[in-house]
Predict the 3D structure of the following.
Amino acid sequence: MKPKDGKSNQPDKNCWTVSSALMVFVLCGLSFYLGGIFCSEKERYESRDISKVVETSTGITSVPLQIKAVTFPECGLKFQDYTPCTDPKRWKQYSYYRLSFLERHCPPAFEKKECLIPPPDGYKAPIRWPKSRDECWYRNVPYDWINKQKSDQHWLKKEGEKFIFPGGGTMFPNGVSQYVDLMQDLIPEMKDGSIRTAIDTGCGVASWGGDLLDRGIITVSLAPRDNHQAQVQFALERGIPAMLGIISTQRLPYPSNSFDMAHCSRCLIPWTEFGGVYLLEMHRILRPGGFWVLSGPPVNYERRWRGWNTTIDEQRSNYQKLQEFLTSMCFKLYNKKGDIAVWQKSSNSSCYRKLDVPDSYPPKCDDGTEPDSAWYTPMRPCLVVPNQKYKKVALQSLAKWPERLHTIPERVHDVRGGSGGAFKNDNSKWKSRVKWYKKLLPALGTDKIRNLMDMNTVYGGFSAALIDYPLWVMNVVSSYSPNTLAVVYDRGLIGTYHDWCEAFSTYPRTYDLLHLDGLFTAESNRYTDGNVSSPLLFCKF
């Protein structure tokens, strides 16, 4: 495994045969999703020998290399959209409090499905980007619920063999572009490269995130697997970044001070309940100077309350309570017009010093929990105060996009072995390797490959090397690795924490290419039998 500090130089020619074999095997050589299986019985493996070219002091020779291949039976059709850790069939086992049953609950070992997920009947190769943003094959995501329930809001509509996405939403039935145009008028930073990363909580079919791609902003569209059916699957089928997830009792799997903007368009999250804990989580993941955008109740309650099955007095009270919570958390109302209200997280330390007053609410979080700890970490009713040692984490202190991509992030020095030199070496390494990948996989950089995942990223160098291609990359940092995800976000890329012992928060058939470097080596020490197989096979056909 190459060191995490990124100090390794150009890839050794001796390992290219092995690396190539692994890359070709992993990069969508299989097209099914396995539900979190790392250790299968040894008798299910079959071994075969291939040759590995090795350079020795006496010249180049060929030595046997043993590759273990694994075979599995096919699951039944009822598993075609199986998501092991968010399985509706297991919801009744968990609490309905704060909808925590919709969070990740992975099956125990004896319930894991060791079989290959089949595609739906009539499945076709996905429509290619950018056409996919506006339409997808009905048989690939055969769900009519949203079409029937949201037809008046123009989320999507079925026409023949396809779903068409007009770009509507609950708060923007006339089209998402018009909605974002108004938002840009309220937040000029969306136009000049200041804002690069965003999160959309309760994303619907991700039309907001899809529109922002043309404006230089990349969005993590987040939604649970709930009665809306396949919101995230629709988004990924369209070629828009998305993940299964819900803001409930656990922290979202992102570092603190990471997103430039967060958005909720009538996402039905009870922001003022439970002591404002959901607002506290938005505060944690937004960087200082970042923006929180809300459209829907209780914003514009004066005009809208009649359609919300409520009273004007109740909505007035809700809005006042929301404003009080946000003010206490060092947000200030930045702008407001019509159905859209924008708050900005303060980067001024004087506001946070006010929380030192005894019995103030919310209290500051103590040092017992790392601000970036976010893998099965319970939310706490306390405020994560931005660390004042950072001078270049606040939005106004970052370089604007695209210069931001190659600017050395301040937080790289918090990584064990991290430095500006390591960051530059990582960039150089992946720039060189991507040229080789292009030779191995000519489809890279074409419209054949849209949704990518870097399963074991360090600083996001692989993603950065692909930035000019018509694709996006989900950068994954292992929950057991040094925390480099904050660096990924500081350079204007997106990603998540994950433990590869478990299934990823996505649907089957949602990625076109999976990339890993050193993952099996890094994770192998967690298994006593030495066998590491992968729950990562969720490529498209």
Remarks:
- The first strand starts at residue 45 and ends at 56.
